[in-house]
Amino acid sequence: MPQGKLCNRQPINTEEQLKLTLADKSGKQYYAEMEELDVDSNLLWSTIQKTMKSRTKTWLEICAHCGLCADSCFLYQVNDCVPEQVPSYKIQSTLGHIVKKKGQVSNEFMRHCMKVAWSQCTCCNRCGMYCPHGIDMGVMFSYLRGLLYSQGFVPWELKIGSGMHRVYRAQMDVSTEDWVETCEWMAEETSEEWPGLEIPVDKQDADIMYTCNAREPKHYPEDVAEAAILFHVAGENWTVPSEGWEQTSLSMFAGDWECCKDNVNNVYSAIERLNPKRVIGTECGHAHRATVIEGPYWVGRPDGLPPKPYIHYVEWLAEALREGKLKIDPAKRIKEPVTLQDSCNYVRNHGLKEITREIISYIVEPGYFVEMAPNKEHNYCCGGGGGFNGVGLYRPQRNVALRKKMDQILATGCKLVIAPCHNCWDAIRDLEEEYEIGIRWSFLKPLVIGMLDLPEGMRVEW
């Protein structure tokens, strides 16, 4: 067990603090020290007075306790429909109680709030669609997470994830040097099969600046290579920044508001430095939400927009197929039943429900695409959103949460699931490992690459 106090209350701001917290392995010491934390009630109430906006106050006050939000919540459904899982109850009994008590709550209560905030809500925002008053418990839970983080009540893994953003400006310990070296390595290796392929770094005035998820260079560098292949085939003038390439925000999941702002500023600084015509983000729902949807407001941009047009990867891919920059060989289209996982963060929160289906129309043989029920903005969370995937303390609850998506997939009869979101991809992978229902899952990039109709000589066949 590591020596010295861990950073329960204070943010992790140095590599030394990060290493100390990581040395705790599964967080045993971290959670033990959490039980000894005194709640700074004055600070908690002061924070609420300064940060709680009129919308949240109104939502807490106008809830009619009608229960119409209950069936909208997949966690309510998979947990035997117990009243404690009704979204309105969950938020009123946590955030609502803290407000009523003006911050005068106990350590035990704050730890209870932590459990509810991170294991009983993925902030998928589905409940807000069905509330007759438009109350969105997901938004309020995001706010509750921020209050809990400020008091030191946050899951160990998310404390570390946010700390890595602060120390490395990436959710994983990927330094600028590591990132650039990975780009060079992937370009060199991939160009053997795709002559002329490059991954340009810090190219000024490109048409496209590409940002991604830190797990790609850390664990799945082929994902970076696949993006490069499709940009190469499409003939795009593109680049990646050496700094400001990390688009994700575990600090958003953790409730680390200050770090959320810093993450976005880091990406926006790269945009302003390199001056691309537009920016394209990777197949990651929460990255898009953090940097494009929420991000402009976090950093105080009055127009609510990033410095340049910033689109999700599915938008670019559909455009490239539509304009003929990428052409599909009809003989290689998917000819087996296939379904699609809609990501909460770019479908429900940004309206990109039809664009993925446009891509499906190019790559799946007619008659083989099977919709989940429900689908589009009505689809359920993958079961691991909002940081749920990564919290070991709540893994049993997460595994129960996966059952809703399992039932949806099984009902389609499909063995192949397209998941254009890193978080959904992870959850569906874990679903198969946990329940062994015999499915496969894939991002869009490798599927499209495998069925491209290419000019002769563009690809070297081995």
Fill in the keyword field for this structure.
23 helices; globular; 7 strands; four-stranded parallel beta sheet; mainly alpha; 462 residues; single chain; three-stranded parallel beta sheet
What percentage of the residues does DSSP assign to strands (E)?
under 5%
Number of distinct beta strands: 7
Shape: globular
Radius of gyration based on Cα positions: 22 Å
Instruction: Trace the largest sheet across and list its strands.
Output: 2-1-3-4
Averaging pLDDT over every residue, what do you get?
95
Largest sheet: 4 strands, parallel
Q: What is the rounded distance between the termini? A: 51 Å
Structural classification: mainly alpha
Number of helices: 23
Parts with pLDDT < 50 across at least 5 consecutive residues: none
Order of helices and strands: HHHHHHHHHHHHEHHEHHEHEHEHHHEHEH
Helix content: 40-55%
Describe the structure.
The relative contact order is 0.10. The longest helix has 18 residues. Strand 3, helix 17 and strand 4 form a beta-alpha-beta unit. The protein is 50% helix and 5% strand. It is mainly α.
Topology (SSEs and partners):
Layout: H1 15-22, H2 28-34, H3 41-51, H4 54-62, H5 74-78, H6 87-92, H7 95-100, H8 107-119, H9 127-130, H10 137-151, H11 156-168, H12 176-190, E1 208-211, H13 215-219, H14 221-234, E2 238-239, H15 250-254, H16 257-274, E3 278-281, H17 285-298, E4 310-312, H18 313-322, E5 338-340, H19 344-348, H20 355-363, H21 395-412, E6 416-418, H22 422-435, E7 440-442, H23 444-450
Parallel strand pairs: 1-2, 1-3, 3-4, 5-6, 6-7
Helix pairs in contact: 1-11, 8-10, 12-14, 14-23, 16-17, 18-20, 21-22
